[in-house]
Amino acid sequence: MDSNARMGGRSGFVLGALVAISACGNVGKEASVPPEVTGSTTMPAAEVAPQPKPYGGPVAFSVVAEGLTASFTDESEGTVLNRTWDFGDGATSVAAAPIHAYSRVGVYEVRETIADGEGKTFDRTLPVRVMPFPPELRNGTARPGLSAVATYELHYFARPPLGASHLDIELTGPAGLAELDVKFGSVPTDSSYDCHVALTDGAARCTFDAPRAGPYYARILATKNFADASLKASWNETVAEAGDKKSGASSAAQNH
User: Fold this and answer.
1) Fold for domain 61-130?
2) Cβ-based neighbours of 66, under 8 Å, separated by 6 or more
3) Which parts of the chain sit beneath pLDDT 70?
4) 136-239, what's its fold?
5) Radius of gyration, alpha carbons of the chain
């Protein structure tokens, strides 16, 4: 017998032994078959949180002056890295809603500067006039007998409550002798007001259908000498407030 025959026989013996061992190991067991995969195996996409939009301007802020103290609120939209306020009297702040007390009556140029995350800056400047509180206009009660010489100003303010509607501030008097300016939050100036009306046909009226709670300042500017003018503020209060007042009065009566 040659060597190839001997090797072939030995290989056949080894292969046969391996097959026999494998067969013996699977006796009494079912062959394991991988489960069939059906449908899509794509994982759902993860939700991505919305990214804050970069600030693109313009700068927006509001002001409410109570006497010589003014409260400022930044109302700019977008991502603001930092902000700086210049109150026009040498004082500054970096707060989002600063409160500043002025030392004297005057008109101040207030500037807010905003910087975003890209190194860009934006700013806005508004004139803010502060003065001690003028006389108050009560709801529905006129201030008669007003007079002034040309270029002089008379100042008043009204404070409608929260929930009030249809605020009217009306000036009556000789036509062509005065102008009425009204502004929420601070005293009107020649360039800053919410309503400006000349006194024509014997009346000038500023109307706010949905007034905010807080001070509305009225300025009467005499364009010529005038006398015997009258100023009145009126507004409607909500039914809920009226009901609360009635229930409060009833409770008070029962307690007495």
Assistant:
1) Immunoglobulin-like (2.60.40)
2) 133, 215
3) 1-57, 239-256
4) Jelly Rolls (2.60.120)
5) 41
